[in-house]
Design goal:
By secondary structure, the protein is mainly α. Helix content is about 85%, strand content about 0%.
Length: about 400
């Protein structure tokens, strides 16, 4: 019997892919997940023109995704630490496919909102587990945080640009965009069946233990709270900038600069996030705290340029500012993820990364919704100025905080 059990175990382990391949399967899944969240952005003006809804409705559609994601992160964000990374990731991709199907059949705002809610739940369930699995499977100490940092920016950039190209050039983009994402998610869900499990699989002692785990919470171990609170303003600055570009970026291109082209709208989002991925790769070997502080400073400078571009009506300067701000985005987020990845014990990574993304998606959604509401009162140009000043202030708060901490340590 022992021999049979050993042979059975050997067969099960033989179908698991090596860690180096599993690492990239999870990383690509992260990219596709983020691409699916950005893909609807270039389609919003199409839906708005077809169904005649207001800017407030537009920001509501954007916000429900983030709210669903946040609610899921707060409840099941650490579940992969108990039952495993792989089942959470596979279930999340299957749920993502359901949300993408809803996009294809959407014929009204309520269906569109339902699609975003399902999509948000899938992303919320997967985000913490994906980030933790990437660190668990990393081939070296720098590659995991790098992939965790560039996967969101690559996904957001590729999703926005790809959807923009399809909206402008391809037939039936409302179907084609999501059909391609469904195919990618289905292939990755199958591939994840062969990814080795990396969680400690702590399980649950009782039903009460399970219920307490699913209670909404944000957990940060005491050992990392001090640096985490210094990291938080920089995280808020980066993701609030991303949320603003994804929700109102195409409107800025059309209203402020008078360019009615979906490709340009997609390129604007691509410029921000692609430059972030390039910058993260370029500074991946730097000291994490220095990388984050330098990135936050660069981000502030880039946002300042975009504010000037809106005032002088220069689309070229706007894109330059987006590239510079995006470079700061990538470096800042990489520095934050490397710092946390090195400090947090493996058994607590799912929960800590879930909490990190709770803060990130709060920044991603709430300021953008407020901005969408304020457009009616203040106008788009004034809203851009106020929002940009808010992002600059947050970035500089983090820089000053770490500078003071370094001086105190010395």
């Amino acid at each position: 019997m022992v021999g049979v059990a050993e042979r059975s175990t050997a067969r099960r382990s033989s179908v698991r892919m090596p860690h180096r391949y599993a690492f990239w399967v999870v990383g690509v899944s992260f990219v596709v997940l983020m691409a699916s969240s950005a893909a609807p952005s270039p389609l919003y003006p199409v839906y708005q023109q077809s169904w005649g809804f207001s800017a407030i409705t537009l920001t509501t559609i954007f916000a429900v995704y983030a709210l669903a994601l946040l609610s899921t992160l707060l409840t099941v964000g650490s579940l992969s630490d108990h039952i495993g990374r792989r089942p959470i990731l596979i279930a999340s991709l299957l749920l993502l496919i359901v949300g993408l199907v809803l996009f294809i059949v959407a014929d009204s705002v309520p269906v569109l909102i339902a699609a975003r809610v399902v999509q948000g739940i899938a992303a919320g369930a997967a985000t913490g587990a994906m980030s933790a699995a990437i660190i668990d499977l990393q081939p070296d100490v720098s590659t995991g945080p790098l992939l965790n940092s560039i996967a969101p920016s690559l996904g957001l950039a590729g999703g926005a640009l790809g959807a923009g190209l399809l909206v402008q050039l391809a037939p039936a983009p409302e179907i084609l965009v999501f059909a391609l994402l469904i195919a990618a998610a289905a292939i990755l869900a199958i591939a994840l069946l062969f990814v080795p499990e990396t969680s400690a699989l702590r399980g649950f002692d009782s039903r009460r233990h399970l219920a307490s785990t699913l209670l909404p919470r944000a957990s940060i171990p005491k050992s990392v709270r001090a640096p985490f609170f210094l990291i938080a303003p920089a995280l808020f600055a980066t993701w609030s900038l991303g949320g603003f570009h994804l929700s109102l970026g195409p409107s800025i291109i059309g209203t402020v600069f008078g360019i009615d082209n979906h490709i340009v709208g997609g390129l604007e989002i691509f410029a921000l996030f692609a430059s972030g991925a390039v910058a993260a790769a370029a500074v991946r070997n730097g000291f994490p705290r220095t990388v984050m502080m330098s990135g936050a400073t660069v981000l502030a400078a880039g946002v300042a340029l975009t504010l000037v571009s809106v005032q002088i009506d220069s689309i070229v300067l706007y894109f330059v500012g987006a590239v510079i701000a995006g470079s700061g985005w990538g470096a800042t987020f990489l520095g934050a993820m490397r710092t946390l990845g090195a400090m947090v014990p493996a058994a607590e990574r799912g929960g800590v990364f879930a909490t990190t993304f709770v803060i990130s998606y709060l920044a991603f959604s709430v300021p953008a919704v407020v901005a969408g509401l304020s457009v009616h009162r203040l106008g788009l140009s004034t809203t851009v100025l106020v929002y940009g000043a808010f992002v600059i202030a947050l970035a500089l708060i983090s820089v000053v905080g770490f500078s003071l901490a370094q001086r105190r340590d010395r």
